[in-house]
Amino acid sequence: MTGLSDSFQRPINYLRISVTDRCNLRCVYCMPDQGIALLPHSEILRYEEILAVAQAAAALGVNKLRLTGGEPLVRSELTELVRMLSQVEGIDDIALTTNGVLLRKYATPLKEAGLKRVNVSLDTLKRDRYQQITRYGRLDDVLDGIEAAKEAGLDPVKVNMVVMQGTNDDEVLDFARLTLNDGWHVRFIELMPFSTDDHLAFVPTGEIKERLLSLGPLETCLTSHGNGPAQYFRFPEAEGTVGFISPLSEHFCFNCNRLRLTADGKLRPCLLSDYEMDLKNPLRNGASPEELKELIRQAVAAKPHRHHLAEGVLPKGRAMRQVGG
Ligand code: SAM
Ligand code: SF4
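^ thats the input. predicted complex w/ S-adenosylmethionine below
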């Protein structure tokens, strides 16, 4: 097999890069309101260092990048990083995962710098509820950000909804309806148990699918960018798609193609395992491109077969916001 593949013959061609552990929101399932220990700035990879990792990964066969965080749009000059990454030989897709609050300001410059598409996290269409879930956000900013992303030509714009029993699960039909005539691409995500708030409960994908059937039958579909961990469907005649990401009820490890780079320069082959390979110190000690490639190969070789979230096994070392989701 050409390119990079792990010990279980899974091709690895996708690197998610967390550019910061900071965020302008405090979503209840992701971060506590207060008392978060943030990384010192000196620990966070500089853009030249991220570029060096992306170049080494691309030389090994990675062709897709996604920028995430924390909230990637709070890092200054993110557009400059996108411009640098878009010039890396072998990279043909750069995407962003964002809460969307700052998208109106940055969508066009990001698109001009080489960003292709964007996923926006949005868990409710109700103003008060948005503020309760995110603690600091304003729904109108996100809706406007989604419009700005579409106007800028970022395509597709996908909306990710983490579904929580008794918190926002009464809105799954409202989100699904937006795929019918408004062309939204909505993905329903099973809540992973990372929060200390035990009032939050996940809703299994099977249950969400059943509720959606009241809008019509769901037809399986593929997307132009491959399906990754999501399964995609469409209502007949709908412009948009409905996706499901089900880390608890249907783990998708068998076709996982990703690696993650944390904001402080650790390469993690699995979101849900504590194994990580430090790249920051080698980078700062002058590692050559060949040495970086060898470290990446070693991390890929250590990618676990699957996670065990459904059996209650959680990573101990880092929270979601520190790995990048
Ligand atoms: N701040 C950006 C955002 O919210 O899109 C990017 C980082 S965020 C950690 C990435 C994704 O992880 C978001 O879609 C968020 O909803 C999701 N996420 C965070 N905590 C989660 C949890 N406990 N279960 C499921 N998804 C979670
Ligand atoms: Fe911030 Fe994203 Fe986590 Fe919400 S999910 S607190 S926006 S990093």
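Residues 233 and 262 are 32 Å apart (CA to CA).
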